[in-house]
Amino acid sequence: MPVGGSGGLRGSVRGSGGSFSMHSLLQSYSSALRRPRTLGRSLSSYLNHTTHLGTFTRMHTDDEGALTNNGSPLLLLPSQDINKRLSLPADIRLPDGYLEKFSLNSPLFDKPLSRRLRRVSLSEIGFGKLETYVKLDKLGEGTYATVYKGRSKLTDNLVALKEIRLEHEEGAPCTAIREVSLLKDLKHANIVTLHDIIHTQKSLTLVFEYLDKDLKQYLDDCGNCIHMHNVKLFLFQLLRGLNYCHRRKVLHRDLKPQNLLINDRGELKLADFGLARAKSIPTKTYSNEVVTLWYRPPDILLGSTDYSTPIDMWGVGCIFYEMSTGRPLFPGSTVEEELHFIFKLLGTPTEETWPGITSNEEFISYNYPRYRADCLHNHTPRLDNDGVELLSKLLQFEGKKRIAAEEAMRHPYFHCLGERILTLPDSEFTYTHTHLLPLRRFMMVPDNRFMRTHTHTPHTDR
């Protein structure tokens, strides 16, 4: 909700010198905006200098998203708390004069803020406008989209601008529609944040938070040898973000290192939800032409369209192996070759190991040799026994036998991180919480040459 718009603000801010209304706070802030530049001083920075603030009346949103007041006091610990309650970035920089043009005594301030008025106010601040963002560098180009590194004039932070070209007759690609519809409801520390959407006649631009690189680039920069402690942190963050999606019946369907973004603090986030789907009811109509070949599970390779969240867990296993060894697990160039690599390592399936497989027409047509399963320990020397066991539970032929993301997070492989890591709020990262666990448990161990560069080429639409 915008700060200055058309109402909904109630309550008071109290300090050691007495109390004053929220209206007075905004009026004080608006009077401080006197710079002749397009963007004003951020509200959070203003509050940082307002040292006499002590408590803030608790506000909450009703069903329409309007702010109301229940009168209970709340300690104003971080100044960003106000912006958070107003549904704005903590570092927002409101345009000069934005608050001044509204009468703080207007009756509109005593009304709930409607969705229409909120949209109008956000537009006046600068959301949804191409001129709000400055393009800096071109980072990558795909079939449907071009990705640029940019900067937001609203926050002065770096952003990633995914510019999707619109065809006159075809409109926006379905991948873009899926990505927007899903990401607007997925708010988690391990999922990339969609900040803004800009629609023009020629393009649809998605504004994402900027991260330094993807996991594939991270592997390249450290010579394909990630410290095993970092492997554990990355894997846990991947499972954490995926568990959030799966709890909401969202299937990513395209997990691979290029779609896992990492910043210079080692925070990993799931990205590129163009192939994702929300699985609300059981169905057998899903496509089996999903997931990049190297990370596609065997049941999908053999034509299955009846799948659910376990489709993502096979990819987690492949990524886990790749982080641990520095090389892809099943680098096939065709479906037949991909299955050949899988069976050569895990053994050619039989009725005992995969009931019903001998009646699968595609499996029969390939006529694979009868391979015996190899020991995973022989291929993952850097993994301990717990790590190999977890990998084995991820790489199961049948989806129903694969370990779920939530169960995997509780696997003994992660016990060294402590129990309370499982109870962190969705909006917070794992290793930054030194008040919960010793810092060494969450700290990234420097990998060779990772800090050498900070260029980022995010994966674009296929």
- How would you describe the shape? globular
Please give the number of β-strands.
16
CATH topology of the largest domain: Transferase(Phosphotransferase), domain 1
In CATH, the homologous superfamily of the largest domain goes by the name: Transferase(Phosphotransferase) domain 1
Low-confidence stretches: 1-22, 33-41, 46-86, 102-110, 431-440, 449-462
In spatial order, strands of the major sheet run 7-8-9-11-10
Q: How many alpha or pi helices?
A: 14
Largest sheet: 5 strands, antiparallel
The CATH architecture name of the largest domain reads: Orthogonal Bundle
Helix and strand succession?
EEHEHEEHEHEEEHEEEHHEEEEHHHHHHH
Calculate Rg over CA atoms.
25 Å
Top-tier CATH class of the largest domain? Mainly Alpha
Helix content: 25-40%
Range of strand content: 15-25%
Whole-number mean pLDDT: 77
Keywords: ATP-binding, Kinase, Nucleotide-binding, Phosphoprotein, Serine/threonine-protein kinase, Transferase
Enzyme class: transferase
Protein name: cyclin-dependent kinase
Domain Protein kinase: 133-414
Can you walk through the features of this model?
The protein is of the alpha+beta class and 462 residues long. It has three domains: 12-99, no CATH class; 130-209, Phosphorylase Kinase, domain 1; 213-452, Orthogonal Bundle (Transferase(Phosphotransferase), domain 1). It has 14 helices and 16 strands. It has helices at 22-31, 43-48, 80-85, 115-125, 174-183, 215-221, 228-247, 298-301, 310-325, 335-346, 361-366, 385-394, 405-409, 439-442, and strands spanning 12-15, 18-21, 39-42, 53-61, 67-75, 93-95, 133-141, 145-152, 158-165, 194-199, 203-209, 213-214, 250-251, 260-262, 268-270, 277-278. A five-stranded antiparallel sheet has the order 7-8-9-11-10, with helices on one face. A hairpin with a 2-residue loop joins strand 1 (12-15) and strand 2. The longest helix is centred in the middle third of the chain and has 20 residues, at 228-247. The chain starts with 11 loop residues before the first strand and ends in a 20-residue tail after the last helix. The relative contact order is 0.11.
